[in-house]
Write a structure and sequence with these properties.
This protein is of the alpha+beta class. It has ten helices and 15 strands. It has helices at about 40-50, 95-100, 110-120, 135-155, 180, 190-205, 235-245, 265, 340-365, 370-375; strands at about 5, 10-15, 25-30, 65-70, 85-90, 155-165, 215-220, 250-255, 270-275, 280, 290, 295, 300-305, 315-320, 325-330.
Length: about 450
């Protein structure tokens, strides 16, 4: 449990393998049975992650063809037992690492030195477990998670490159689609911005350098109620999921750090009743679909910052394993910019986190029926707590619908006026709150 190779509680993955070993893969435990999933469903996401896609990714030529070893029948149905998936390494060149100074010198800002400090030994060729090749297992399992989310709840998870260095973009998070993202090699739906990003990446690449930026991920149609208070907040789980991706250095939920520039009045997402569904909605989404660590039914929006790739073709100062100061120029095949291939990685971690949260929500909160559900079931004598008779709150979020609601229904607005509020006559008066929080 403490070795750091597993993620998730009920929908749990363990990745294994190294960049220059025989292969890499994942074991997925806790996947529900009777889900229709094919090798092709998984391969779609792996193809978006694989190297050699364009001139701005590593030229390493790997097909990344997935093999499903267990947990799925010959008819492509999950059995509920652990699913093992393997991708064999075919185009690794260990000599690029072992036959030069990189075999003894640490690459600046890479995991070389810290892995050696922790374990007293390291996989020199390809970086071992610190290589982005480890993410194959995440993306493969994430494809199954994506299928569960889409089939059962209509949840859609999409990410895109929103920033390369200081070049941003303008994208409607409610409307962009996967085809918009994959329309260019940068994976930015804003074509004008994508051209500027590509120019910057090419400029840096030709100089033997690397560049970073930001990937934005949006999950649509997420139901309200996912996540738990305090330590298991949904954004906390998402932060751990995304910060575990190689080269990830920053995480934001909703407006993130930009929200610190606003006042509470400007930052708060005011509630209203959706006239079409009768559901509780927010007029803005600065919270990124999460409030109090729990999803509120709006789009879940996160941003993940990725640093420039550590291995570059320019001379840098470093030290050797035995403590000698030397100069080092990186060799081998590496991404000048990790962002385009990070898009499916972030999508995978979002999908894995949401499926885990959904299963936890069903396990904890759906065991006892609500009052409305109790009245619609059989009258078999059972012993329940008084809480089961509590009325349900008004449904919340983009996919929610109030029972027996008609778009012609009207909810009157009670105007707040603190001066008129009193304890004896509140009819038609504003709601007042006495707040006593730490």
């Amino acid at each position: 449990m403490g070795s750091g190779n597993s993620f998730g509680r009920m929908f749990r993955i363990s990745t294994w393998g190294e960049s220059h070993g025989g292969g890499v893969g994942v074991t997925l435990d806790g996947c529900p049975p009777r889900i229709q999933i094919s090798r092709e469903d998984i391969q779609i996401d792996l193809d978006r992650r694989r190297p050699g896609q364009s001139r701005i990714t590593t030229p390493r030529n790997e097909a990344d063809s997935v093999e499903i070893l267990s947990g799925v029948t010959i008819d492509n149905v999950t059995t509920g037992t652990p699913i093992a998936m393997l991708v064999r390494n075919k185009d690794h060149r260990s000599g690029d690492y072992l036959e030069n100074d990189m075999s003894v010198a640490y690459r600046p800002s890479h995991a070389d030195a810290t892995y050696d400090a922790k374990y007293g030994v390291r996989a020199i060729a390809g970086g071992g477990r610190s290589s982005a090749r480890e993410t194959i297992g995440r993306v493969a399992a994430g494809a199954i998670a994506r299928k569960i989310l889409k089939d059962l709840h209509g949840i859609e998870v999409l990410a895109y490159v929103s920033k390369v260095q200081d070049i941003g973009c303008v994208v409607n998070d409610d409307a962009f689609c996967k085809e918009d993202v994959d329309a260019n090699i940068v994976r930015c739906p804003d074509e004008e911005a994508a051209e500027k990003m590509l120019e910057r990446i090419d400029e840096i690449r030709k100089a033997g350098n690397s560049i970073g930026g930001v990937v934005t991920c949006v999950a649509r149609n997420v139901p309200a109620g996912l996540g738990s208070p305090v330590f298991d907040k949904l954004e906390a789980d998402l932060a751990k999921a995304c910060m575990s991706i190689p080269a990830a250095k920053g995480f934001e939920s909703g407006d993130g750090f930009d929200g610190t520039l606003l006042t509470g009045k400007d930052h708060n997402d005011e509630f209203y009743i959706d006239p079409q569904t009768g559901a509780t909605r927010t007029r803005t989404n600065r919270s990124g679909g999460i409030q109090g660590g729990i999803s509120n039914g709006e789009n879940v929006v996160i941003h993940v910052a990725f640093k420039p790739t550590s291995t570059i073709g320019q001379i840098q100062n470093t030290v050797t394993r035995d403590g000698q100061q030397v100069e080092l120029r990186g060799k081998g095949r590496h991404d000048p910019c990790v962002l385009p291939r990070a898009v499916p990685m972030v999508e995978a971690m979002m999908a894995l986190t949401l499926v885990d949260a959904l299963m936890l929500q069903h396990a904890q909160c759906n065991l006892y029926p609500t009052a409305a559900e109790s009245s619609s079931t059989s009258t078999t004598t059972t012993t329940t707590t008084s809480s089961s008779n509590l009325p349900k709150p008004n449904p919340m979020g983009t996919t929610a619908m109030r029972e027996n609601w008609s778009p012609t229904d009207h909810i009157p607005m009670i105007i707040h006026n603190a001066a008129q509020s009193n304890d004896t006559d509140k009819k038609g008066k504003p709601i007042g709150l006495n707040i006593d929080e730490e």
